[in-house]
Amino acid sequence: EQISLFIEKSLGKKADGVIALNLTTLQSVLRDIGPVTLPDYNEVVTDKNLRERVASHADMPHIQKTKQDYLTSLFSRVLAEVSSVSAEKSSILLSDLYAGLRSSQVFMIFSDKEQNAVLSRLGWLGDVTTPQCPVQLSDVPCIVDSTMQVEANVGANQANHTINRVIEEIISVSRQKVIHHRTITYKNTGTTEVWPMGSYKNYV
Checking phi first, is residue 71 left (phi over 0); if not, alpha (psi -120 to 50) or beta? Predict the structure, then answer.
């Protein structure tokens, strides 16, 4: 909603909707459509070097002020390629975007409230919701007991791109109480301590 407001204020146009995706999804898209060339930066970006190229430009001072922002330039090229993708590739591309929606790597919001209600039920709106009691339990007392994990990288680097997580949640139910035992295992797959990689320091 905030992005829609920014678009309206800066461009004087009301957005029909906003689709937000992260580098994980962009990586999948590049794997599907193939490499893209950025003439302004004299670079070829692939699914293999995407994170490294974005990281190298993230905190780099803009030497040439005339250059378009790196991510804007990259995404413009990706959109141009996607719009002319073959029927065979489009099927794979849509499948990967659907996977991104299901794994919360992509979110969408529209100006139409009815559409947003559907997206919210699917978990694609990006809002924080409290699950409702199942209809099968409508005639008995029902309490929703949920967990939401929030995590932030506070190490002043981009090591979170190389982190693999395994989350295990064991729930024990007795007549007196419900106990959640949550174990999060982190593995840093980075091969260097050189910035922007390095040790992963997080706040959970």
Answer: alpha
The one-letter amino acid at 143: I
Tell me the pLDDT tens digit for each residue of 54-77: 877 876 655 554 556 889 999 999
What is the pTM for the complete model shown? 0.73
User: CA-based Rg of the chain, rounded to a whole angstrom?
Assistant: 21
Sign of the CA dihedral running 18, 22, 26, 28: negative
Q: Show the tokens assigned to 25.
A: 């999804």
Whole-number Å distance between alpha carbons of 77 and 70: 11
Which of 32-46, 122-136, 160-174 bottoms out in mean pLDDT, i.e. has the lowest? 122-136
Distance CA 54, CA 49 (A): 9
Are 114 and 25 in contact by the 8 Å Cβ rule? The answer is no
Model confidence pLDDT, tens digit, residues 105-122: 999 999 999 999 999 889
